[in-house]
Specification:
Layout lengths: L14 E5 L6 E2 L2 E2 L3 H15 L3 E5 L16 H11 L3 E4 L1 H9 L6 E4 L13 H8 L4 E4 L20 E4 L1 H15 L5 E5 L8 H7 L5 E4 L1 H10 L14 H13 L3 E3 L3 E5 L8 E5 L8 E5 L1 H12 L3 E5 L12 H15 L4 E5 L1 H10 L7 E3 L3 H7 L5 H7 L6
Parallel strand pairs: 1-4, 1-7, 4-6, 5-6, 7-8, 9-10, 9-15, 10-11, 15-16, 16-17
Antiparallel strand pairs: 2-3, 12-13, 12-14
Helix pairs in contact: 1-2, 7-8, 9-10, 10-11
């Protein structure tokens, strides 16, 4: 790809139209987790110090093209100001032209929720032109929105010099390193509830990595395809042919699929429910599989021990409830230990995955953890992301 990084350009005296993802969780009208804001701000502060002015665009929730006061970006203005270490001006899109023109080097303008505009999700060229008029250089720093062909992520890049921001460049570098050019042996850990939701992910991964560890309800479906009884376990009986196709593709590309040899079962789906460990092909008729067992964890750890690249998406069990978080936490800590020792590169992403790593207390020890949800999954599927393609094809000179 021929994507330019904004950090490579002279930004002194230039107004940067920056697409961020500042859609953060709220509680009682206040930001409850400012991680996205602080990560974004860390990349922007050096640009401000070099004399750039910022016009920041972001969505917030899903107002579906209508103004919803409850989803105004006004609510995150103070948090953004604190993170950037400078005052942040605020304007509606109608007011933004005049406000942007008045910006001085080192100043910041936050524009109201772009999804209040009906043309945003339609990738409307007219809206893109209004947004492009707010500055000199476009900066997409929102990988998590790159799978959407919206006016602020795609059409705008056709109208002005377009670049990638620090977070975008870091995400692209990490994902390329983990999936496109992984150092072998490479291992992907793929968990979650349903094979049907990750067919494309699995089919792409088995052509790219050396080993795939399958966990969660997805593993149940693989075990069911082998004739294992499921009892009351979550599984997809109609996906047996899909499992066979994935296995055939893996065999063709020399990828080994690893399933749990033993499982933890319970009669109730609740925290601290009475549980027992049984062989993977011996789930009782009145029980459900809720986690991989200790023998499985030991075998999976052996796979990870030889890995130079680890890519993770999805938990191995019902990680939200003790004791069914054991396998996920154990492998997360193993991957973190290997990363800390400099033995591998570890990249993880997806909402449940990030929550699981946070619960295990190892998020900071992975090489890179993506907060992108849909964009991360579509990358794993091998899809072309519209927001990335737009930067690749964008004008390279002002």
């Amino acid at each position: 790809m021929s994507i330019r990084a904004i950090t490579d350009l002279d930004v002194a005296g230039r107004r940067l139209v920056v697409r961020a993802d500042l859609s953060v969780p709220m509680a009682e009208g206040r930001v409850s987790d400012a991680t996205r804001i602080t990560r974004f701000a860390e990349g922007m502060k050096p640009l401000l110090a070099r004399g750039a002015a910022l016009v920041i665009l972001s969505h917030f929730g899903r107002p579906k093209g209508a103004t919803d006061p409850a989803l105004s970006l006004r609510y995150i203005r103070d948090d953004l100001s604190r993170a950037l270490g400078c005052p942040v001006k605020f304007a509606s899109l109608d007011e933004a032209g005049e406000a942007a023109a008045a910006l001085q080097p080192g100043q910041v303008l936050l524009v109201e929720n772009v999804r209040f505009e009906p043309g945003e999700e339609r990738n409307d060229p007219a809206l893109a032109a209004r947004l492009a008029a707010l500055g000199d250089i476009y900066v997409n720093d929102a990988f998590s929105c790159a799978h959407r062909a919206h006016a602020s992520t795609a059409a705008i890049a056709e109208l002005m010099q377009a670049t990638a921001g620090p977070l975008m460049m870091a995400e692209l570098a990490a994902l390329t390193r983990a999936l496109e050019v992984p150092q072998p042996p490479s291992v992907a850990i793929v968990g979650g509830a349903k094979v049907s939701s990750k067919i494309a992910v699995l089919k792409h991964l088995v052509t790219k990595v050396d080993h795939v560890i399958v966990g969660g309800g997805m593993a149940n479906t693989f075990l069911f395809a082998d004739g294992a009884p499921m009892g009351r376990s979550l599984h997809e009986a109609d996906q047996v042919e899909t499992v066979k196709a994935i296995r055939a593709l893996a065999a063709k590309h020399g990828c080994t699929i690893h399933l749990p040899a033993d499982v933890v079962v319970a009669r109730e789906f609740k925290a601290r429910a009475a549980s027992e460990t049984v062989a993977a092909n011996a789930c009782p008729a009145d029980a459900m599989i809720l986690d991989a067992g200790p023998a499985a964890v030991a075998a999976f750890r052996d796979v990870l021990a030889g890995a130079r690249t680890i890519l993770w998406n999805g938990p191995l069990g019902a990680f939200e409830m003790e004791p069914f978080d054991a396998a996920t936490v154990a492998l997360a800590r193993t991957a973190a230990d290997l990363t800390r020792a400099g033995l591998c590169v570890s990249v993880a992403g997806g909402g449940d995955t990030v929550a699981a790593l946070n619960a295990a207390g190892v998020t900071a020890q992975f090489t890179y953890v993506s907060t992108a949800g849909g964009a991360f999954l579509e990358w794993l599927e091998g899809r072309v992301l519209p927001g990335i393609a737009a930067l690749d094809a964008a004008p390279t000179a002002a």
